[in-house]
Specification:
TIM Barrel, eight-stranded parallel beta barrel, 8 strands, 35% helix
Length: 262
Amino acid sequence: MQHHIDKKMFHIEILSPKQKSQKLEEDLASFADKYRRAFDAGHVICIPDNPMGNLAFQGVELIRELGLPVHPDQVSVHINTFHTKRDLDAMLTTACDLGISHMLVISGDGSPRLPKLTGKELGYDVEAVTSVELLRYIRREYPGKFHIGVAFNPYEPQDHEVEKMHRKVDAGAEFITTQPVIESHPAVESLWQFGLPVVIECWMSKKIHLLSECVGYEIPEDTPYDPVANLQTLMAKYPKCGFYLAILGFKTQFPILKDVWK
């Protein structure tokens, strides 16, 4: 992961089509186009796992079925706890077969339509499986196959969040990706103690009000926000970090990325 930062490779989020899409062929073509553009530009493609609890096609199955290129340094799939064990193992095996080596493990957003892994299935005596148990399971069953990162939320009570991060690091986390940060956040500096590469999430949509639930307070819909300016501010504030670009505008923002991180 550190070499992503050293080589100034952005982590670019590309959402996979929802399974209930009414224009699936168009969505698949758009996904493939964005994937190839980010890949050819030398960035890291990051594919969330059923974001917001919405059932979507898995990144590994899309890469396989669409015949998309893979380089071990340029693809990172997200894995959460809302799967059957059979599907989890299938995803992990496919990732190995495709040569995908980077992964972000998170607890994830639930939904009544999604199954949930149990501690018994993974071999742990816990009531609820979190990213810690999932990380330990992957390390145990797929040793040496993946570079695994974990999430950090600067908007949660920090004593609890930092304690969780200690458990994630003890379980084998190799890098940390934050929730979206606007301009700066004092909690980010608490991550330096872990000595791991840190990737700052940058919200690239002008609709900053959509972050209200994430940050824990209401952001008015008409709040002015310049995503590129915020990215530049974060890059100046955290020069030793990497940057994860969420909801990136491929028509307007993607072409200028080569001039942003020099």
